[in-house]
């Protein structure tokens, strides 16, 4: 599926994640996307202290109750542990939207929050992986969860459900994205050396 995106959204990293090989433990890269009235947090997972999330939101003039939507790239605890902070938000995963006691089935592939924000299915690290594509004035940002843990991969994800699915999803994201936000590292501009 080809995506045409508007360019009205803004993207911010709330917390840059790491893994035990690059940091003192494990933390998720947590992102904030703003487009009109939408305030979306992606992968509110593990952090050293919950104050990291609260302080990062405050730096943008926000509190947890201001967040309209939360996107979970996949269901591993290190990427979702703090989803409960966002009690006013709709929660999105690979198959549904959850809000209060409502559960609305929908496929993630092609789901549009706005002209500038779309989900796409990108299985590989897990069977449920999704990526949020963000059209910004500077290009397309792909918040890709653990398709990449950081800019250098790992090239061979040790927990992948399927190496061929992972490779296909990585290629798909690389064909679209100007910037990739990995699950446990800083955003990066893809190069020919980016693991496929």
Kindly describe this structure.
A hairpin with a 2-residue loop joins strand 2 and strand 3. The mean pLDDT is 96. The chain has 196 residues and is an alpha+beta fold. It has helices at 51-58, 77-80, 163-174; strands at 10-15, 30-35, 38-42, 69-71, 90-92, 96-99, 102-105, 112-114, 117-121, 130-136, 139-143, 179-181. The chain has one domain (10-181): Ribonuclease Z/Hydroxyacylglutathione hydrolase-like (Metallo-beta-lactamase, Chain A), CATH 3.60.15. It is built from three helices and twelve strands, in the order βββαβαβββββββαβ. The strands form two sheets. Strands 1-2-3-4-5-6-7 form a seven-stranded mixed beta sheet. A five-stranded mixed beta sheet has the order 8-9-10-11-12, with helices on one face. It is 12% helix and 28% strand.
Secondary structure blueprint with pairings:
Layout: E1 10-15, E2 30-35, E3 38-42, H1 51-58, E4 69-71, H2 77-80, E5 90-92, E6 96-99, E7 102-105, E8 112-114, E9 117-121, E10 130-136, E11 139-143, H3 163-174, E12 179-181
Parallel strand pairs: 3-4, 4-5, 11-12
Antiparallel strand pairs: 1-2, 2-3, 5-6, 6-7, 8-9, 9-10, 10-11
Provide a brief overview of the structure:
The protein has 196 residues and is α+β, with helices and mostly antiparallel strands.
Shape: globular
Major sheet size, sense and barrel closure: 7 strands, mixed
Assembly context of the chains: single chain
Order of helices and strands: EEEHEHEEEEEEEHE
Helix content: 10-25%
Strand sequence of the main sheet, in spatial order? 1-2-3-4-5-6-7
Total strands: 12
- The value of Rg in angstroms is 15 Å
> Strand content of the residues, in percent?
25-35%
Uncertain segments:
none
- Assign the CATH class: Alpha Beta
CATH architecture heading: 4-Layer Sandwich
Mean pLDDT over the full residue set:
96
Which fold does the CATH topology refer to? Answer: Metallo-beta-lactamase, Chain A
């Amino acid at each position: 599926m080809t995506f045409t995106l508007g360019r009205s959204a803004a993207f911010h990293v709330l917390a840059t994640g790491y893994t035990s090989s690059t940091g003192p433990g494990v933390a998720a890269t947590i992102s904030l996307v703003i487009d009109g009235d939408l305030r979306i947090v992606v992968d509110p997972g593990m952090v050293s202290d919950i104050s990291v999330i609260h302080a990062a939101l405050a730096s943008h003039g926000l509190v947890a109750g201001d967040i309209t939507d939360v996107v979970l790239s996949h269901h591993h605890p290190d990427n979702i542990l703090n989803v409960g902070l966002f009690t006013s938000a709709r929660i999105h995963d690979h198959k549904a939207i959850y809000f209060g006691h409502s559960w609305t089935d929908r496929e993630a592939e092609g789901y549009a929050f706005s002209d500038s924000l779309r989900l796409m299915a990108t299985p590989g690290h897990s069977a449920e992986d999704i990526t949020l594509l963000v059209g910004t004035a500077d290009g397309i940002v792909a918040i890709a969860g653990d398709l990449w843990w950081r800019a250098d991969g790992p090239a061979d994800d040790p927990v992948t459900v399927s190496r061929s699915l992972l490779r296909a999803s990585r290629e798909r994201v690389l064909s679209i994205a100007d910037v990739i936000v990995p699950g446990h590292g800083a955003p990066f501009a893809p190069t020919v050396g980016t693991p496929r």
